[in-house]
């Protein structure tokens, strides 16, 4: 539990940095694009779904590599 505190703090800092970058990007894009309807404007409020990674694909009835 003692190690979890600093790790959680680091995670919080990284999330804040990520959101600040997104905020700045949005601010600059809106300044350039204005309120015109375009791809950026349409994608602004779209829900971002996480993708499930595919670690490897296998053929049926095939021996794995050594």
Low-pLDDT residue spans? none
Number of helices: 2
Write the element-wise H/E pattern from the N-terminal end onward: HH
State the major sheet: none
Residue-averaged pLDDT, rounded? 80
* Strands, total number: 0
Radius of gyration: 21 Å
* Percent of residues in beta strands: under 5%
Structural class: mainly alpha
Shape: flat
Termini separation: 40 Å
Helix content: 40-55%
List the helices and strands and how they pair.
Elements lengths: L3 H30 L5 H5 L23
Please characterize this protein's 3D structure:
With 66 residues, the protein is mainly α. The protein has 2 helices and no strands. The longest helix has 30 residues.
Supply database-style keywords.
single chain; 66 residues; mainly alpha; 2 helices; 0% strand
Could you write a compact summary of the structure shown?
With 66 residues, the protein is mostly helical. Helix content is 53%, strand content 0%.
């Amino acid at each position: 539990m003692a190690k979890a505190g600093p790790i959680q703090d680091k995670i919080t800092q990284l999330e804040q940095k990520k959101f600040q970058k997104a905020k700045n990007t949005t601010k600059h894009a809106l300044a350039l694009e204005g309120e015109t309807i375009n791809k950026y404007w349409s994608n602004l409020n779209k829900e971002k779904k996480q993708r499930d990674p595919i670690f490897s694909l296998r053929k049926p009835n095939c021996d794995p590599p050594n």
